[in-house]
Amino acid sequence: MRPALTLTLALLLALLLPATDALAQARKDSARHQNHFMSPQSQQRSNQPSLNTNKGTQQWPQDQPRTQLFCDQYARAAAGMRGRVQGGQTGAQLGYGLGYIGTRDHYDALGAAAIAGAIGSSAGAAQDRKFYDFHFGECMIGGRLATTPR
């Protein structure tokens, strides 16, 4: 393996290390994620018509009995579950760019993009799981349910 490619992969792995306080980080990330996807600016960005007819947000009933099925539905909606795709795309783009800088070869850069995309996808899936676990746990203990995008 070339030294530049090794350095690139080491840097990529270092950037994907988990945060120290996972619960506090999950709260911050979840609030940031929800605020971004429910803001008027993010809803106005797309000029293309959407196939989704349920526009807006969903307010979850606070007095609903907290069954596992209800909390599962709430946690999936609150978590968003977009991390795997976003992580894969980000990793592939970063891997290709850094791979091309390091090797100046298109095919080596594609190989780095494939590896980085897989690493980014698994990191995104882990983040999705953290969001889901956090919201599911909050729901099951009777915590306040947040408004989610539809």
Please give a structural write-up.
With 150 residues, the chain is an all-alpha fold. The protein has a domain of 62 residues. The protein is built from six helices and two strands. A two-stranded antiparallel sheet has the order 1-2. It is elongated and about 60 Å long. Keywords: Signal.
**Could you tell me the number of beta strands?**
2
Cα(first) to Cα(last) distance is 47 Å
Q: Give the SSE order as H and E letters.
A: HHHEHHHE
Describe the oligomeric state of these chains in a short phrase.
single chain
Uncertain parts: none
Q: Given the structure, what is the number of helices?
A: 6
Q: Assess the beta-strand content as a share of residues.
A: under 5%
Main sheet: strands, sense, barrel: 2 strands, antiparallel
Average residue pLDDT: 80
Strand order of the largest sheet: 1-2
Provide the structure class. mainly alpha
Residue share in helices? 55-70%
Shape: elongated
CA-atom Rg in angstroms: 19 Å
Signal peptide: 1-24
Keywords: Signal
Biased composition (Polar residues): 51-66
Biased composition (Low complexity): 39-50
